[in-house]
Every structure is written in C-alpha cells, then in structure tokens.
Design goal:
The protein has 824 residues and is an alpha/beta fold. 48% of the residues lie in helices and 15% in strands. The longest helix is centred in the N-terminal third of the chain and has 30 residues, at 39-68. It binds (1S)-1,5-anhydro-1-(2,5-dihydroxyphenyl)-D-glucitol. It catalyses: [(1->4)-alpha-D-glucosyl](n) + phosphate = [(1->4)-alpha-D-glucosyl](n-1) + alpha-D-glucose 1-phosphate.
Length: 824
C-alpha cells in the first residue's frame, strides 16, 4: 500500500473559526440568530461562509488568466444539470469534515441542513449532467474555461404522480434566491432579433447592415465552479433575458400602464423556462430564440474580453479561443461569429471563415432522428434574417469549393450534405452546419463515434479524414463517489491514497482485495448500510415497505421508448406471474426501483409510467407473493435523489436497444458504486464491460449488427408474441382489468405499441433479457461471487473519470494547457 498523500489542501481554518464565521453570517448576512434561525437560514449562513473562500478563488483565477493572456475554452450548452452545490463545494475545498464537526457542535447534522438546498435543475438528463461534470473537471484540471448557458427562472419541472399518472409542476429553484450566484451587470450584453438586412454600397464596395426589429438585454449571472483541491475557481456564466427598456415611460404617461410592461414580459419569457424535451426537437420559435440569445450573448462576451486585451487586432483570436458546441443547440453561434467578424469587424469572408472553423468544435450526442435539430428556413429568416443569409453563403461555398471538388457533378451527394434540406419546405440542418463549421466533431462513446462516422456523416468523414473523433464520456468521482458515498469512500481510503478522487486509477489497488473475504464483508456491509438508509427514503416517498436484504434493481434515466423501461416492466410481470403459478418459485427477493421523468407531450412515455405504477400497486399489495417482489417508482427523480440511490443499488439496468444510447453516464455512476450492470452492448456499456471484465457484468440481447440484420429481414414483433407463452400472457394482461380493476384496456396502449410496432425491438430481446435476469439472481445468491464482481467494478472504472474525458478534449480538440491560479 502506498503512502497517503493529502488530496484537497485543508484550508487554514479551525472548527472553532468555521463556527464563528457561520454565526457571523447568520447574524450579519441573514439578520437572525442561533435560537431563532430556520434550517434554511443555517444553510444560507454556511453558504455565505464557504463563499468567503470561493469568491477569493474566483478573483485569483481570473487575475492569473488575464495576466497570462491565456487560451481558454468556452463551453456552450443549453443545459447544465448542476444539482446541489453546497456539499460539492465543501468537498472540493476540503472543508466538508470541518463543517460537519462545526455543525455538530452547534447541534445540527450537516447532512440535514444540506437537504434544504433546492436542486439547480437547469437540464433534462444526460447531456446537461455531462456539462456539469465537465465544468467540475475543467476547474479541477486548472484549465482556463468558462461554461455558458441560460439562467432559466424555472428548471426542469417537478414530477408528481396523481392516480399513477405523471403531473408536471413548476420548478422554483430560485424562489428564495440562490447564494451561489453573482450578478455581473457590468458585463451585460445586447441581443438583436427580427428586422431586415440592408445592403449598403460604399467606396465601390458593399456591406450588410442588420436593422433589428427588437433588442433585448442579456444579464450574466456567474456561478463559481470550484476545482477539486480549491486552487482554481472557474465560472459558469448564465444569461438572463430582460426587456431592453425596462419600462416605456411614454406609454406609461399616456395612460397605458399595463402596455408599458408588455415588452418586458415578452423579453423575459426567453429565459423563463427550460424546454422539458430530452432528445426531441421542440421546433418552436421561442426555443430558437433561446438558442440564439445565449449564443449571441456568449460570443459578444468572448469578443468583449478579446477586444479589451487586443483591440481590433484579430491575429491572435484563434490562438486564444476555443468554442465547444454541446450538441447542435448552440450551432447558431457559428453564423453569429461570422456575422460579428465580417459585418462588425470588417474582416474578409475567407479570413473570418478560417477563424471560425478553427475555433469551433462540435460534440454529437445522439443518432436519433427526432433529436437531430432542423429549423424551418422561413423561421430563421424571420427571426435572424442576417444569419439566414450567412448560412446560405456558408452552404454555397461549401458545396462549390469542397463537395464539388471532391465529387464533381454529383448532385445526390450535394443534396445529402447541403445545410439546407429541400424536402418538407426548406429546413436548415443544424447537424450539417455544426460539422461544416467545426474543425473537430466527436461522439461520446466508441461505438457511438463509429456510428457517427459510418451512418450519420459518412461522406463528411470521407471529405475530412481525421475530423471525426471519439471522446468517451465520464463522471466526476468527487460528486459520484466521494460526496455521495461517504461510507465507501472511507473504506476505500483505508487501502488507497487519499487523492483517489483526482486519480481514480488508484482504485486499481483494490483489485487484489476482491477475493479477500474480510474486505468483501466490509464492502457489502457498506452497501447494506446504504440500502438501509434508502429503505427510509422509499418509505417516505412512496409509503412502500421494502427490505434491505432484497436485491435493489435500479433503472434511473429519462423515460424513452429506446431506453426500454417497458422491457423491465414485462419481466416484472412475468416474475409476478411465475410466483402466482408457483408460490415456491425459487428467487431471491427483489425491489425494482424506477426513477424517470417523461417529456410532458410524450404520450407513450407517460403511458409506460402509468403502467409501471399500476403494476406496482397490484404487486406490492398482493399477499400471495409474500413480498418477493416490490416495485417502486420514485417521484421527481433528480440529481439529489440519484446521489442517495446510486450508493444503494445492486443492479444497474442499462437495457437500451443496441445502437440507440449514445453513451449513458448513469451506467458509469452505478458501476463505480458497485452495482452490477445488466445491459445490452450499447453506448459506454461496452467499454464498462471491457474495463471491468465481461465476467463482472451481465450482457444480453442483440448487438448492433444483429439489430440491423433483424430489421432488414423485416422485423415482426407479432412473431415473438405468438411464440413465447410467457410473453404473450403478460402482454395480454395489459389488455385486461387485472391491474386496473373495473377498467379494462387502460394499459392497452403499451401492449399494442409493442405487438403492432415495437420500434425498439423490446419483444425480440425479451427472452434473452429474462435469461440474463436469472443469471443476476443466481449470482446474487453466491455472496462471495457477487461481492467480488462488485469490488472489481469499483476498482476498474478509472477510464470513466470525467477528468480523463476533459484531458482528451484538451489534448485532441482544444489544444489547451492548464494554468494554475496563483496563491493569494
Ligand atoms: O447525452 C448523454 C449521453 C446519452 C444521450 C444524452 C442526450 C441528451 O440527454 C439530450 C440530447 C441528446 O442528443 C443526447 O442520450 O446517451 O450519455 C451525454 O453525452
């Protein structure tokens, strides 16, 4: 065993001093006192105390970077799913234990106080959470980086269930303000919309002038992002929209008091609410305006900073700036940068285009056609008339100079690669725009990156060999192990260096312990204690009693047909049926745990939630099966709930149809915390199996090639329905009133979708899935074998540290070097 290095430098403060600081803030910042303060006030007072360290770090980091004229990456993302910030900030500053002790001495459990913090849910799912992990890693690696996004007033909706059905309620994360944000009015920007473009002829040449129909203000809110160890503190800059003129006094004076507000109401709508669709293109004008609003404000911010340092000498622009597009959502930033360089700075098109391409890179997160954004050409023309012209010009030059040169006279390829789609009225393909305007394009797991090259952009890949790359996703081990699983972290620290949250490969030192029965017992005792804790959460949230001795079988992710929560459901029904047929059916008791939000307009996803809730109601209350199966659907799944559930999970269900899940990141969090993956050969599951060893995961179902083959042969779900007695019986159950007494047919939509269409081949994979579930059952009953597999998973997941992902981006895409902030 190697010596223990200190991980996070401990700040220069004692428990006593921390207590005094908290009390000082309680009194002087919160205006209350110890005897009277609510838990929320204590929470805010701790945040204010922690901010004393953080704000200092923000200025130190800024100063260092400005002084060195540092190259920086700007990470543009419509979503940042941050969750809570307090515990992460305490951990990264090395203050957690100190704060814990201080609060104990004041008569509180820190964990209790932390519960007061609302989640910052400014994202839908994987893509938004990835952005949050990535900015943690950028700060940890001391990379000069800034995240840019939208300061939504309402994040992702709060989910409730009413009679088994999902109901959406508004999220209010800022109802009482947030201690973590700093408003920076001095960096306000103006964003233009609508209007028309004039061609001005002058001095024998011409240029374009955009006369906008309206303008609005973009106000930046900065959220400090503390790197692990606390050296560098980067910021996440979120833009809030406001009316240009807050109040029209002329209208007011002429008696139009209410009208005076209308402009402000419209402008404020832009940052009002996050679109709740994950992987579906909303296609709404307001969404396009959101995308442009934050892209334009961010580009303007980059330009402001650059001009402050270099005036109008743009020769160093590309050397100092990288712009990363998180999916196509900010793709409009490409023509926006062209507009600023050409129209405002007077740079030639050719020069500006070279700069733009060298600056941008694009991450693709999906192959699903419904997620690949396309905007009606007319809509862009109306909202952003100058940008539409620029897109036409980019496209014309691309087709003429690059496509025509490579494939002379080939109109078929031109049609396919064009940024403009001629079918369905004219549409602007944001994926094509992103590829054409970037110097690098990456997928998010090896198989996904291969499919991006092979199926999505094969000609583009031929045109620009080397442009398409893979960067496998990752997760931050600070939040997803150290902070969320203190018991396991403590156990680990008895055996590995204390800086494992930074260098996750240090966990390989646990591998030899996988066969050590003492360690196995300790490891499984941690899991059991985490499960005992979660039993209480389940009781509180769902009023269902479960036993920590059962297998905790977990599927947590957005609800989508391709993720196949209904495959899980079919198996639950089959198990239940087996128990009804034979009460002695041999199985280890199991708790099936779901967490998932459905997009409010996604009919079938909502029907699947309803079906799971109805089956749960019946199964949980049927004395005949003697508690062998319990099913719980946790309402309002979110980051803070994931942090409690993941450490308690035994089985991690990653059961998407092969080829559909680009990567997945929940799979990494669960495996790191010792859950056994039950999964298809999809996304990062493949790499998890490679790292942990195939014997330590349970793989089932068709692989990508078999999926293609099955489809080519004319997939017929009815065949599986007719030929599998158990499958037929459970699907028919959905048509009856067995789970919805007195109301037959309430669950039929799910059945008929599967039997008649089954776009994600649930029925084809059913038998293989059921067999894999039997393997899980057998493995769990071999206690030593299970413990061994779980330990090996924890010990083998270093590859999925988001620090590794970010290092890959820095090396292969951004060409970015760390710059450690100067000490005080
Ligand atoms: O992005 C994750 C992947 C996951 C993929 C997800 C995603 C969204 O959450 C939203 C839109 C989109 O195009 C993709 O589904 O597989 O792990 C982060 O890369």
């Amino acid at each position: 065993m190697s010596g223990k290095k200190s991980a996070a430098p401990k700040p220069d403060m004692t428990v006593k001093q921390f207590k005094e600081t908290v009390i000082k803030h309680l009194r002087s910042t919160l205006g209350t006192y110890e005897e009277k303060a609510s838990k929320q006030a204590w929470n805010q007072a701790i945040a204010a105390s922690v901010n004393e360290f953080i704000f200092d770090g923000v200025s130190r980091t800024r100063k260092t970077h400005a002084g060195k004229d540092a190259r920086a990456v700007h990470y543009l993302s419509l979503e940042f799913l941050m969750g809570r910030l307090m515990s992460n900030n305490l951990q990264n500053l090395g203050l957690y234990e100190l704060a814990d002790k201080a609060m104990k001495e004041l008569g509180f459990e820190l964990a209790d106080i932390l519960e007061e913090e609302p989640d910052m849910a400014l994202g839908n799912g994987g893509l938004g959470r990835l952005a949050a992990c990535f900015i943690d890693s950028m700060a940890t690696l001391a990379l000069p980086a800034i995240g840019y996004g939208i300061h939504y007033e309402h994040g992702l909706f709060r989910q409730e269930f009413f009679k088994g059905r999902q109901v959406e309620r508004p999220d209010q994360w800022r109802e009482f303000g947030s201690p973590w944000e700093i408003c920076r009015p001095e960096s306000e920007q103006v964003v233009k919309l609508y209007g028309y473009v004039e061609t001005v002829y002058e001095n024998g040449g011409s240029h374009k002038v955009w006369h906008p129909g309206r303008t609005m203000r973009a106000i930046p809110w900065d959220i400090p992002i503390v790197g692990y160890g606390g050296h560098n503190v980067n910021v996440l800059r979120l833009w809030e929209s406001r009316a240009d003129k807050f109040f029209d006094w002329d209208v007011f004076n002429s008696g139009g008091y209410v009208d005076a507000y209308t402009e402000s109401v419209q402008a404020e709508t832009v940052s009002k609410v996050l679109y709740p669709n994950d992987e579906t293109d909303a296609g709404k004008e307001l969404r396009l305006i959101q995308q442009y609003f934050f892209s334009a404000a961010s580009i303007a911010d980059v330009m402001r900073r650059f001009r402050n340092a270099h005036g109008n000498d743009f020769s160093k622009f590309t050397a100092l700036n990288a712009l990363q597009l998180n999916d196509t959502h900010p793709a409009i930033a490409i023509p926006e940068l062209m507009r600023v360089l050409v129209d405002e700075e007077g740079i030639s098109w050719a020069e500006a285009w070279k700069m733009t391409r060298e600056t941008f890179s694009y991450t693709n997160h999906t192959l699903l056609p419904e997620a690949l954004e396309k905007w009606p050409l007319r809509m862009i023309q109306h909202v952003l008339p100058r940008h539409m012209e620029i897109i036409f010009e980019i496209n014309a030059r691309f087709l003429k100079d690059e496509v025509e040169t490579k494939w002379p006279g080939n109109d078929g390829i031109k049609r396919k690669l064009s940024i403009i789609e001629e079918a369905n009225g004219q549409m602007v393909r944001m994926g094509n725009l992103s590829v054409v305007g970037s110097h690098a394009v990456n997928g998010v797991a090896q198989i996904h990156s291969d499919l991006v090259k092979k199926d999505l952009f094969p000609e583009m890949n031929e045109l620009w060999p080397g442009k398409f790359l893979n960067v496998t996703n990752g997760i931050t081990p600070r939040r997803w192990m150290k902070a969320c699983n203190p018991r396991l972290s403590t156990l680990i620290e008895k055996h590995v260096d204390a800086d494992w949250p930074r260098y996750l490969e240090k966990l390989t030192a646990l591998k030899p312990l996988a066969d050590d029965s003492k360690f196995q017992k300790e490891y499984m005792a941690v899991k059991h204690a985490n499960k005992e804790d979660f039993v209480k959460v389940i009781k509180e949230l769902t009023d269902v009693d479960v036993s920590a001795d059962a297998i905790f079988d977990v599927q947590i992710k957005r609800l989508h047909e391709y993720k196949r929560q209904h495959l899980n459901l079919l198996y639950i029904m089959a198990l239940y049926r087996r128990l009804l047929i034979n009460p002695d059916y041999d199985m280890h008791p199991r708790v099936f745990i779901f967490g998932a939000k459905a997009a409010p307009g996604y009919y079938l996803a909502k029907e699947i939630i309803f079906a799971i809730n109805k089956v749960a109601e019946k199964v949980n209350n049927d004395p005949r099966i003697k508690d062998k199966i319990k099913v719980v659907f946790l309402p309002n799944y979110r980051v803070s709930l994931a942090e409690k559930l993941i450490p308690a999970a035994d089985v991690s269900q990653q059961i998407s149809l092969a080829g559909k899940e680009a990567s997945g990141t929940g799979n990494m969090k669960l495996a790191l915390n010792g859950a056994i993956t039950l999964g298809t050969l999809d996304g990062a599951n493949i790499e998890i199996a490679e790292e942990a060893g195939e014997e330590n995961v349970v793989i089932f179902g068709m692989d990508v090639d078999e999926v293609v083959e099955t489809r080519e042969q004319g997939y017929n779900p009815g065949h599986y329905y007719q030929n599998n007695e158990e499958l037929k019986a459970v699907l028919d159950w959905l048509d009856s009133d067995f789970f919805t007494p007195g109301e037959p047919g309430l669950l039929s939509a799910v059945k008929h979708n599967l039997v008649d269409h089954d776009p994600y081949m649930v029925l084809a994979d059913y038998q293989s899935y059921s067999d894999a579930q039997s393997k899980i059952d057998a493995l769990y009953r071999d206690k030593k074998a299970w413990a061994r597999a779980a330990i090996i998973n924890t010990a083998s997941l270093a590859k999925f540290n988001s620090d590794r992902s970010i290092q890959d981006y820095a090396d292969t895409i951004w060409n970015l070097k760390p710059i450690k902030a100067a000490a005080k």
